[in-house]
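User: Let's play a game. I give you a shape written as tokens, and you guess the letters that built it. Ready? Here's round one.
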């Protein structure tokens, strides 16, 4: 017997995680991006990461169509960016209000993020309600600053 959805969500609120915005571009859908906390490294050789996206999210369809995506780790000064990309406004508004530049494969890279990884989609698996998308890192950009964290349903900062 498994735990209920509410019990599962309550337990996972005790896991502090960084906040990312996953972005992509495809000719079919244009610029797309969404806030994601389910992000992890997979392998060093080859360098691979994974992100988990709700199967209903249009950004996942864009990644599958375009074949490339970027994971942008947000800094402590980007709470507004996290909120924008979490929904409530159009894809066009998200990018109009956030500084970005095209990456090596044309996907948007958020220029104020703490770190950005540009990835080629190499595998995907549907697990429950989410796509697990594995990307091989093609380029990395590291900047200075501190990350913003998500814990117990709210934003947190690292102590100095």
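Assistant: Ready! My guess for every position:
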């Amino acid at each position: 017997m498994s735990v209920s959805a509410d019990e599962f969500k309550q337990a996972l609120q005790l896991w502090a995680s960084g906040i990312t915005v996953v972005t992509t571009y495809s000719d079919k859908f244009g610029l797309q991006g969404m806030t994601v906390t389910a992000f992890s490294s997979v392998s060093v050789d080859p360098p691979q990461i994974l992100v988990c996206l709700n199967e209903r999210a249009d950004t996942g369809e864009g990644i599958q169509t375009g074949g490339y995506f970027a994971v942008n780790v947000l800094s402590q000064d980007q709470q507004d960016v996290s909120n924008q990309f979490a929904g409530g406004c159009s894809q066009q508004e998200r990018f109009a209000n956030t500084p970005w530049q095209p990456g090596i494969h044309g996907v948007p890279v958020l220029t104020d993020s703490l770190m950005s990884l540009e990835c080629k989609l190499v595998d995907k698996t549907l697990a429950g309600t989410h796509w697990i998308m594995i990307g091989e890192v093609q380029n990395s950009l590291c900047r200075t600053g501190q990350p913003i964290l998500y814990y117990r349903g709210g934003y947190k900062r690292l102590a100095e």
